[in-house]
Design brief:
- By secondary structure, the protein is mostly helical.
- The protein has one domain.
- Helices cover 72% and strands 0% of the residues.
- It has 7 helices and no strands.
- The termini are far apart.
- The model has no long low-confidence stretch (mean pLDDT 79).
């Protein structure tokens, strides 16, 4: 296990940028794109528009995505407090809530993977854009030095698996 942890630390350090790097502003911006308030704000706006247009299928899409993300958030939080893995560097601006002191698994990666996989079922085009966004945010969180590679990989896998499971339960209910 020590060997894997050492490998994870070494790989993570290779992805990490200096704040003096020309790429730092882009990594900083991208690292915030998975913040929960952006995701839920966007879903809420789409839901309100759906209510105005009365397109019931869109409501089911939003419901399945929201359930996937909420379950993923819950699991990530439980695992973070069970494992209590310290972040490679102090999170500073990259963690909005003081209670989110731990790095494993990456909540940003997990949320975006759940969003991407859920969306893929309903829209290939938007879904694949979200897959790329999830990967980009994961890399950016490595670049700004607040996650290890394993945090990102496990977060992506968790979000994808939860979304897949929720879809299997909700699809039969769709009108």
């Amino acid at each position: 296990m020590d060997h894997l942890s050492g490998l994870d630390t070494t790989l993570s350090q290779r992805f990490s940028l200096s704040s003096e790097s020309d790429w730092w502003p882009a990594a900083r911006l991208t690292a915030h794109l998975g913040d929960a308030h952006y995701i839920f704000g966007g879903l809420g706006l789409i839901f309100l528009l759906d209510l105005l247009w009365a397109r019931s299928n869109l409501s089911w899409v939003i419901l399945s995505i929201t359930i996937s993300i909420l379950i993923t958030l819950s699991l990530v939080t439980l695992i973070k407090y069970a494992v209590r893995r310290q972040r490679p560097h102090p999170p500073g601006e990259f963690v909005l809530f003081p209670y989110d002191a731990y790095s494993f698994p990456s909540g940003h990666s997990a949320r975006l993977a759940a969003l991407a996989v859920s969306t893929l079922h309903f829209s290939n085009g938007i879904g694949w854009v979200l897959v790329l966004l999830a990967l980009g945010v994961g890399l950016a969180r490595l670049a700004v030095g607040i996650h290890y590679v394993a945090d990102i990989v496990v977060g992506l896998m968790m979000g994808a698996i939860v979304a897949w499971g929720v879809l299997r339960l909700i699809i039969p209910l769709l009108p």
